[in-house]
Amino acid sequence: MHEKLMKAFSEQINKEYYSAFLYLAMSNWLNQEGLPGAANWNYVQYQEELAHAENLFRYLQYRDIPVTLMNIEKPEDTWTSVLDVFKQVLAHEKTVTASINNLTSVSMEVHDHAARIFLEWYVSEQVEEEANASDLIQKYSMAGDNPNALLMLDEQLAARTFVAPVVPGVGN
């Protein structure tokens, strides 16, 4: 694997672990605010981000490529509202999308077709991540300060469960 692509993969692994920590911090804050459903949604998101990082890691191992692990930055841990949390979720997912797109571009630049094909799953996943965050922002905006609507939304988010993604190309 080209050195530039190896570096970009290592950076993406770090970003995925940072994402996991960010969602864990969000889950913790929401739980403290008495929103266990929204806390659960973010905890499941934390689990997904761990899986994303681990699948990138396993892909490199599958190809016998050394992985360089980096320090993980401490995420923000305080927000003003549940709506503020989900606005940050969307903003964060947009930065992850840009990073995945950059990683994919590097794979094409160095003509690593196997990596490009592997990364297609991540490109599609980011479309879903942004759509989910946008949907929650819309719902929380509509709910406003209505306690019944907020309770109903929280109950809906409590039902979310983690399903480990199956990413082609990692020797599942």
CATH topology-level name: Ferritin
Uncertain spans: none
**CATH level-four homologous superfamily name:** Ferritin, core subunit, four-helix bundle
**SSE class:** mainly alpha
Describe this structure in words.
By secondary structure, this protein is mainly α. It has a single domain (3-158), classed as Ferritin, core subunit, four-helix bundle (Ferritin, Up-down Bundle), CATH 1.20.1260. The chain is 74% helix and 0% strand. It contains five helices and no strands. It has helices at 3-32, 36-62, 82-109, 113-143, 147-158. Helix 1 (3-32) packs antiparallel against helix 2 (36-62). The protein starts with a helix and ends in a 14-residue tail after the last helix.
What structural keywords apply?
mainly alpha, Ferritin, 74% helix
Q: Topology of this protein?
A:
Layout: H1 3-32, H2 36-62, H3 82-109, H4 113-143, H5 147-158
Short précis:
With 172 residues, this protein is mainly alpha-helical. The protein has helices spanning 3-32, 36-62, 82-109, 113-143, 147-158.
